Amino acid sequence: MSAGETGGRARQMRQxxxxxxxxxxxxxxxxxxxxxxxxxxxxxxxxxxxxxMEAGDVYPQE
Length: 62
Fold this sequence. Notes:
Number of strands: 0
Helix content: over 70%
Number of helices: 2
Order of helices and strands: HH
């Protein structure tokens, strides 16, 4: 995967995380809200890791 692809993928993950956060805000069921927030948090964490790897700051964990 090239650096451009990684950056685009990280951007897409951040956008999806934002969409999930918005869905969580609209959710009326507390369990569903928590599930969506957790999924958004995982996506944000993963996008940050990929961005750091693209910048050469971090090596992937195995």
